[in-house]
Amino acid sequence: MSVMIGSVSERLAPDSDFMIWNATTNESTVDTVTRDMQRVKVAAAVTFMSGIFQLLLGLVQFGFVVTYLSEPLVRGYTTGAAIHVIVSQLKYTFGISPDRYSGPLSLIYTVLDVCYLLPTTNVGTLVVSIVTIVGLIIAKELNTCFMRKFPIPIPVELFAVIIATLVSWRFDLKTKYEIEVVGQIPSGLQPPVLPEFSLFASIIGDAFALSVVGYGIAISLGRTFALKYGYKVDSNQELIALGLSNSIGALFQCFAISCSMSRTMVQISTGGKTQVAGALSAVVMLIILLKIGELFEELPKAVLAAIILVNLHGMLKQFTDIPQLWRTNKVDMLVWVVTMILTVVLNPDLGLAASIAFSMLTVIFRTQLPKYSLLGQVPDTDIYRPVEDYNQVKEIPGLVIFRSSATLYYANAEMYVDALAERSGMDIAKLLSRKKKLEAKRLRKEKKEAKKAKKEAKKREKQVEETSEESDHEEKFEITMEENAHETDSDLPKAIILDLSPVNFLDTVGVKTLRNIQKDYGEAGVQVLLSCCQNCVVESLEKGDFFNEKVTKAILFSTVHDAVLYCQKTEDEDMEATHF
């Protein structure tokens, strides 16, 4: 969030716009006071507009987008965000000053810069960091051991801040060892000021992106702790809360808020789990700003960095999700790993958007490659299960019962047809081609017989004898063709039953696919029945003109067993295929 606001402020208020001529040094310098004032105005304006966007999105129930944040995605994202926070604290831990980077790969550049500057580490700062980290770890372990005896956890972070401030002030660590401290903390609150409306046209795109990213970060962390502590997060309420905070805070020259990984972990580790903790934090911050802020001016920044690093170890423990997900669901593991990598490489703002897009692709991928099964009957029951999964399940002779584990739509329609042909053992293209050849052969033979009958008729003197001979030839031909047809279709099933229970919607391509299946297999002499159709599927079939005079709703059955009983009832009859 800070990086996004900083980039907008630097773009709209660059140093080049605030150059002044210094007569003493005879060179141009930057008027930092005026520049910073303008950048504050830009930050307040973009914050105000992002708050308005969040309010509007909350009112139109935009919070539904949270349904696309799966648990593996959220945990992978928070792990990647934790890595960003850790890297951002390294400069305070080692007392170095790496360059500031923004955009994709900024974390990689920062790590390389930190490694390059390690030889210039401030030893005093590093010692303070190590002592604080070790002390916090020991104190937290003791806190865990005595948790049963002390119902209220000891606020070790608060003690660390107080002790470090006193030591830094007493031994003058800033002057003697060049240890960077917090420095001057401005006291008092800024009076409310309306944002500059003239800036809105230049920041509308950045404000919308900021509102979405801020919401995404807050809701992802909220869902993480909601899963951990067993409560529910109202996504639309969070949007409205963020919108009010940003729009009102902007009047006091605050910049956009979201959810801080580091501060949240510190609050959790000190036992804060309710809104009371947030209220107390706000009161303490107000007191510090108004009265006692100057008392913390000597606090080393290395101590704050150490507190953040220690409290982020819980987020890093989420790496143990990888082997567990590998055993349970490899696609979820891939979502976790890819989300973490994208967040690290592309930064949290772009990483979140890219992670959601990748997660959606995995959903499409799963529906494109569902499991196709032939169903058989459990003996003496009306239960039908996949034949390959159960040993006692038996196929119904003369029937093919086919089911897909996913819905039928444009992305998998072609594969559905191919799988049906493969599982049923019927190559519909070859069957139709052979049927056309037989039809052509029949027509040629009829033509030949007709010519022969005509010649014989001329030789006959009596019309009765000619008619008798023609009838004999035609009857002989019909018997021959029926025998050929019987021989051709003897291996085909009598009917195909499509179990559509997993199908929860049908698009136009899905309706067309079922129509083509009905037509093609019907022309091959195989009846196609539909079973277990949901109401929405039947409505889609009706709207797609699937039913007509030839194909009626009589092919619909509420269960697979009903369709099987219908086929068995008509087994001894000639089941004529439906033609379009």
From TrEMBL:
Residue spans of biased composition, Basic residues class: 444-457
Gene Ontology CC entries for this record: membrane
Keyword entries, A-Z: Membrane, Transmembrane, Transmembrane helix
Topology within the bilayer: Multi-pass membrane protein
UniProt region (Disordered), positions on chain: 444-477
InterPro entries with a match to the protein in the record: SLC26A/SulP_dom (IPR011547), SLC26A/SulP_fam (IPR001902), STAS_dom (IPR002645), STAS_dom_sf (IPR036513)
Main location class: membrane
Compartments where located: Membrane
TM annotation in the entry: 42-69, 116-138, 150-171, 197-218, 239-263, 275-292, 336-365
Name of a matching Pfam family: STAS
PANTHER family for the chain: SULFATE TRANSPORTER
Protein name: Solute carrier family 26 member 6 isoform X3
